[in-house]
């Protein structure tokens, strides 16, 4: 055994957006385990295998412990002084030669709020560009855009702990059992309490087996399905006319568009038998209250933002928003992807979703930061790679992300990085992207620093330092502060709480936040003043953040790449229970032991035709790349479908996925691409 801990430090889990709290058990300055902390508001004693066993990556011998500078193609150890001097000089040189917009940064949904705030401030105030983005771009950016357009606020409307009390749950494009396990547990709790569950998913996920209605739709046909449900609801008179009249606008335009989505037409597009569609519509619309839960099966499509707005349409049509146990509830992916958006690590907004194009907002930040700010919306992440290849972007600063492994069409992303003049990568491990860097800066992990994460129900919670930074690593916020000082823009923060105070003073929706106030239970935004108790659910009584909720008229749009004779299968990617991102969980011995390699799901009919047996190695190839994995022959996927995760160094699935995405937010269409499959 590892013995008794010397101390326990309550903190927030660094993996998924549920935001469980638990105690890090510390002995002799080392993290030796995780135990429940019953004061945790979100999860109580619950955690999942990732939170419980996955944090051993913190002490992996592979951790980066000192800055590295590439000299003659090889990384050489360097002092902080030397590394930061070099970066400051190169950034200044590039800014002076090509202008501020020749630089860009990738901020991080893995880092604390304060680090995201300081990163976007660094890019905007010191470099002078709005070229800052992060991995929300590749997951829930359509949620932020779609829910903001429909409701005026791009976040989960309700709270995680309402789930067990829900009477009807409509789960679409999400597999919480594996990707958000504590929410999965709460949905199962609702079922034990007598709730009715509708699932729409192309795969037989665990909850599909427990659902009253499971609609196994073809990937990329969500809009048709939702429009079909809405048409049935309208024809049957199950809609909420009062809510529509008093709380929404543009209903008629939407109603016109859905007219053609007869159950037969919808069955043609989605493959869902019409009796199931009608049953789902009836259950959802006739419940006193019904709650929608979704995740990346909705957002990661070329029509991701439209998919999100379709769900908002459905909720408004039936008055299922603005009250307890209802709403539209995106389960955010990364631990702090809500927070990194909130903090303005996006090319179009400062913290608190204040637009860079809004003169009054810009002037406020100019005054506070003492500089002139750019009014030009910055580059989204996929555009950064294009701009680099086109010779317009010359330098990048990548914090806490590994785009070559996580973004669609890895080949193109790699090419983007290769074209840069200067690349700085700041991370806790060496990454694929890091291998191309000119300078590597070693960062501290979540266990080694203070700060806050914001979970998917908008709860800002404390992250607490439990051990000293490993080796010579430093918290990201200190690195950015020191770099800023080197570049001649003074930053004097001595603790992340000071960064939160500055952020709160400039962001009306977060004005009530402080480390003191979030200490015990966190606070759910909006929290507009220091007395405000936080907001359990949004749009109370149909009073939307934007005034009236907006119906959107949306038509079905097929995926960008459909199967053909050469690439006859449709690949979908997603998460599994035992893993998380490569740069943290990928270094957890415990998690790797549970499930050591990639398993690609394939239907038995297809496997038989291709002479593939369960556990055989197969090669999956798209127009962009190729990977190998072991076959998992299962009826859980549709014939013609392949399902893979993206959790393994030995099987980098994003070599295969698509480089194009949602027309509004550019979120890659990870859920559909055409591939061929061969026995290896
Ligand atoms: Fe961590 Fe998410 Fe698991 Fe909770 S459900 S322990 S936040 S990975």
Automatic annotation (TrEMBL):
Signal peptide: none
Domain 4Fe-4S Mo/W bis-MGD-type intervals: 6-62
Enzyme Commission number(s) of this protein: 1.9.6.1
Any one GO MF annotation of this record: nitrate reductase (cytochrome) activity
UniProt entry keywords in alphabetical sequence: 2Fe-2S, 4Fe-4S, Iron, Iron-sulfur, Metal-binding, Oxidoreductase, Repeat
Recorded family membership: In the C-terminal section; belongs to the prokaryotic molybdopterin-containing oxidoreductase family.
Stated name of the protein: Periplasmic nitrate reductase
Organism: Sporomusa silvacetica DSM 10669
Gene coding for it: napA_4
Full-protein interval shown: 214 to 893 of 896
């Amino acid at each position: 055994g590892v013995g008794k801990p010397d101390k326990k430090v309550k903190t927030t889990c660094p993996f998924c957006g549920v935001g469980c709290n638990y105690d890090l058990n510390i002995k002799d300055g080392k993290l030796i385990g995780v135990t429940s902390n019953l004061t945790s508001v979100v999860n109580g004693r619950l955690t999942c295998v990732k939170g419980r066993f996955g944090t051993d990556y913190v002490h992996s011998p592979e951790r980066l412990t000192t800055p590295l500078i590439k000299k003659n193609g090889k990384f050489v150890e360097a002092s902080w002084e030397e590394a930061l001097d070099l970066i400051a000089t190169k950034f200044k040189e590039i800014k002076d030669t090509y202008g501020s917009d020749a630089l860009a940064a990738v901020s991080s949904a893995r880092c604390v709020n304060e680090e995201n705030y300081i990163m976007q401030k660094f890019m905007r105030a010191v470099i002078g560009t709005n070229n800052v983005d992060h991995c929300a771009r590749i997951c829930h950016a359509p949620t932020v855009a779609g829910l903001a357009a429909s409701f005026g606020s791009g976040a989960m409307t309700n709270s995680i702990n309402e789930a067990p009390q829900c009477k009807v749950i409509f789960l679409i494009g999400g597999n919480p059992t594996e990707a958000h396990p504590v929410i999965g547990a709460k949905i199962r709790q609702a079922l034990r309490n007598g709730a009715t569950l509708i699932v729409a998913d192309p795969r037989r996920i665990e909850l599909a087996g427990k659902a009253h209605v499971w609609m196994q739709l073809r990937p990329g046909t969500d809009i048709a399905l939702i429009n079909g449900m809405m048409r049935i609801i309208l024809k049957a008179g199950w809609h909420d006319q009062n809510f529509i009249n008093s709380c929404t606008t543009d209903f008629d335009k939407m109603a016109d568009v859905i007219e053609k989505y007869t159950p037969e037409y919808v069955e043609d597009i989605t493959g869902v038998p019409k009796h199931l569609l009608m049953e789902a519509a009836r259950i959802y619309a006739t419940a006193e209250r019904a709650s929608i839960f979704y995740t990346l099966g909705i957002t990661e499509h070329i029509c991701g933002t439209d998919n999100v707005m379709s769900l908002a349409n459905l909720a408004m049509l039936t008055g299922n928003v603005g009250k307890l146990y209802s709403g539209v509830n995106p389960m955010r992916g990364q631990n702090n992807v809500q927070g990194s958006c909130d903090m303005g690590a996006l090319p179009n907004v400062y913290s608190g979703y204040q637009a860079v194009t809004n003169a009054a907002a810009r002037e406020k930040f100019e005054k506070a930061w003492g500089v002139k700010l750019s009014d030009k919306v910055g580059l989204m992440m996929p555009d950064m790679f294009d701009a680099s290849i086109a010779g317009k972007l010359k330098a990048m600063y990548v914090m806490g992300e590994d785009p070559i492994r996580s973004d669609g069409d890895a080949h193109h992303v790699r090419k983007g990085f290769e074209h840069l003049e200067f690349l700085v990568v700041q991370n806790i491990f060496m990454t694929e992207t890091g291998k191309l860097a000119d300078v590597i800066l070693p960062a501290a992990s979540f266990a080694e620093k203070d700060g806050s994460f914001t979970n998917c129900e908008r709860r800002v919670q404390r992250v607490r330092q439990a051990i000293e930074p490993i080796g010579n690593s430093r918290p990201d916020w200190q690195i950015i502060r020191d770099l800023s000082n080197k570049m001649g823009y003074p930053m004097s923060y001595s603790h992340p709480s000071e960064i939160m105070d500055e952020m709160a003073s400039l962001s009306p929706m977060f004005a009530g936040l402080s480390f003191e106030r979030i200490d015990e239970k966190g606070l759910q935004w909006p929290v507009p003043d220091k007395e405000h108790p936080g907001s359990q659910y949004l749009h109370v009584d149909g009073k939307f953040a934007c005034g009236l909720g907006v119906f959107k008229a949306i038509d079905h749009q097929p995926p960008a790449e459909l199967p053909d004779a050469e690439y006859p299968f449709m690949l979908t990617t997603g998460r599994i229970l035992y893993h998380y991102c490569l740069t943290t969980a990928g270094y957890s011995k415990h998690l790797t032991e549970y499930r050591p390699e990639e398993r690609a799901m394939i239907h038995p009919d297809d496997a038989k035709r291709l002479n593939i047996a369960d556990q055989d190695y197969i090669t999956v190839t798209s127009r962009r790349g190729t990977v190998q994995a072991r076959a998992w022959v299962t009826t859980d996927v549709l014939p013609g479908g392949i399902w893979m995760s993206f959790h393994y160094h030995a099987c980098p699935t994003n070599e295969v996925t698509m480089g194009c995405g949602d027309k509004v937010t550019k979120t890659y269409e990870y859920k559909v691409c055409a591939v061929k499959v061969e026995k290896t």
